[in-house]
Amino acid sequence: MKRRTLIKGLATGLTSLYLSKVYANSLLTQPNPRMAPGPFLPTWDSLAQYHVPDWFKDAKFGIWAHWGPQCQPERGDWYARGMYQEGSDQYNYHIQKYGHPSKFGFKDVINEWKAENWNPEELLSLYKKAGARYFMALANHHDNFDLFDSQYHAWNSTKLGPKKDIVGGWAKAAKQQGLRFGVTVHASHAWTWYEVAQRSDKNGPYAGIPYDGKLTIADGNGKWWSGYDPQSLYAQNHPLSKDSLNDNSMVGYWDWGNGANVPDKAYCDAFLNRTIDLIDKYGPDLVYFDDNALPLWPINDAGLKIAAHLYNTNIRKHGKLQAVLFGKHLNGQQRNCMAWDIERGQSNQIEPLPWQTDTCIGEWHYDRRVYERKGYKTAKTVIHSLVDIVSKNGNLLLNVPLRGDGSIDSEERAVVEQIADWMKVNGEAIFSTRPWKIFGEGPATASVTGLNAYGFNEGQGKPYVAADIRFTTKGKTLYATMLGWPENNTITVKALAENNEVGKVNQVSLLGNSRLKFEQTPEGLKVQLPDNRPCKEAFVLKIEGAIV
Hints:
- Helices cover 30% and strands 16% of the residues.
- The protein contains 16 helices and 16 strands.
- It has helices at 2-28, 44-47, 54-59, 79-82, 89-97, 106-112, 120-129, 166-177, 190-193, 230-234, 265-282, 302-318, 332-335, 368-372, 379-391, 410-426, and strands at residues 61-65, 134-140, 180-185, 286-292, 324-328, 339-343, 355-360, 394-399, 440-441, 469-474, 477-482, 490-493, 505-510, 517-521, 524-528, 539-545.
- The strands form 3 sheets. Strands 1-2-3-4-5-6-7-8 form an 8-stranded parallel β-barrel. Strands 9-10-11-16-13 form a 5-stranded antiparallel sheet, with helices on one face. The chain has a 3-stranded antiparallel sheet with strand order 12-15-14, with no helix packed on it.
- α15 packs across α16 (410-426).
């Protein structure tokens, strides 16, 4: 009996070793992608040739599907990290729904995700009606699972989970709707982000039993993931970062400082190859990195190589550069190399270069509790943010989180449809406009919350009222958007007062209505509004004369 057990054990070990070698060799034999030649080199000085294309300056509004396997539990953002943090809400939920993370890890959540009700054509048709001029799809998140037909990463959605090319489906639907297509890439952080999966419970019946973050391909014999190496997903074959057992926030490690364990060359090369493969296969015009500046900077030049490759391949595709690359927390030089992205926040001034706010109507990854408590941002909040951002030379990228099955819920759909109704009346004050000499006026301008390096200042100022006005221009037309409806149907635009270094106003109309009576006085442009409002949420005066 012992002999039989020993022979069986040896056979299992040899099988595991064979599978491990087959897996490793399959990746090693993939040729490295060729970097595209062209005018851009992988240096900051060379990338500073960049200019944001006019189409992006005109587009103003995009919608994002921040959707992947972390939406399957429908328990909010960063689920694949939170489920390994003992005592957290997501940890407790995971144990109740799936079991202990030593037995059912995030790799197993991936296996549960089927995206059975995903209809990209219908969703993008809806988003186009809402005014989106570009669409962005999640290509991978910090969970390190590629949502495309990845040549360099076996843990991808064409082989596991839904067994669908998610990015390819989105790209096809965007092309059908005439929308510019982009991808968002977040996987550079998996190395430190997943370190919680190395832990074990400190208390309770599973105390000291490791979670599944250190499993190897040899542990998969006879399991659904046989032949797939968990270390390719979790990337945890390394020591923990300094103080990682006490730090649940990740903030200190985001730019690889404060004692973060630095990724090895193989990890950086794999990220580079995966991202070049993504760009080459799907040809996105927009690429968003959830990184300070570029991914893996400053410990590795992979991000610089990806940026140069994107720009050079895009020139080859279009004949001129039409790509937009986004990074966060940029210094002065870096803002000349790409577009500055601000997460859940916005600038408090007119920026000299085009920029973008990215935000969400709920949680980044779908959270069913937001639906149940009717906690989404309202259409009014989204529209007010859009109007303010555009007045400051920015664009808004809005995430509408999808459920695990690939659908949006009824509350989200209602918000998108209300945005569409407003855009039908007022879109001309948004699209293809440029900032005026000031972005606006009103009580909220004096209470703007300062912007820190990372963003996150949305919703911290005074609520907007009718006297809060935001300006945009198009040709010789000035648009003044009122962020409320004034009492007595009368509004005074102070910036257009006589002798205020502005010219004479010749005509004023209300979008969705007709010409209005007005008087230009030393106090401002006084406008009499009609009794009936043409729309909801915000109201646009179209002003013509020698004022732009």
